[in-house]
């Protein structure tokens, strides 16, 4: 169950990162509220996952999901540029997430 909580926490990290961008420096109310709620939920789920998962694995995977997820959202949702180098970088982060998961106990 810890891995499910960790995955959900990572997805919520993407939500709060996107909504933070949409908040325009916390000047827009609804995106600002979404950011804060998603942050709290993400941190809460991460803390629950960390009850049983090692710190290094949980934190690395959480931030990796957030990084790759924000990258994908930036391209698809926000129209950010795509280059081969950016794609390779995201794939390396994804490979790191997979390797960290495979090397973690539980």
Automatic annotation (TrEMBL):
Record keyword Transmembrane helix present: yes
Topology in the lipid bilayer: Multi-pass membrane protein
Alphabetized InterPro entries for the sequence: EmrE-like, Small_drug/metabolite_transptr, Small_multidrug_res
Keywords recorded for this protein, A-Z: Cell membrane, Membrane, Transmembrane, Transmembrane helix, Transport
Subcellular location: Cell membrane
Gene Ontology biological process terms, A to Z: xenobiotic detoxification by transmembrane export across the plasma membrane
Transmembrane segments: 27-46, 58-78, 84-104
Predominant location: membrane
Family annotation (Pfam families): Multi_Drug_Res (PF00893)
Family that this chain belongs to: Belongs to the drug/metabolite transporter (DMT) superfamily. Small multidrug resistance (SMR) (TC 2.A.7.1) family. Gdx/SugE subfamily.
Name of the featured protein: Guanidinium exporter
């Amino acid at each position: 169950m810890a891995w499910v909580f960790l995955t959900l926490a990572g997805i919520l990290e993407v939500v709060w990162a996107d909504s933070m961008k949409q908040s325009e420096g916390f000047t827009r109310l609804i995106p600002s509220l979404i950011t804060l709620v998603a942050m709290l939920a993400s941190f809460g789920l991460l803390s629950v996952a960390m009850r049983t998962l090692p710190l290094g694995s949980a934190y690395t995977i959480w931030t990796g999901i957030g990084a790759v997820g924000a990258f994908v959202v930036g391209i698809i949702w926000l129209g950010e540029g795509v280059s081969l180098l950016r794609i390779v970088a995201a794939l390396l982060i994804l490979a790191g997430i997979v390797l960290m998961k495979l090397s973690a106990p539980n």
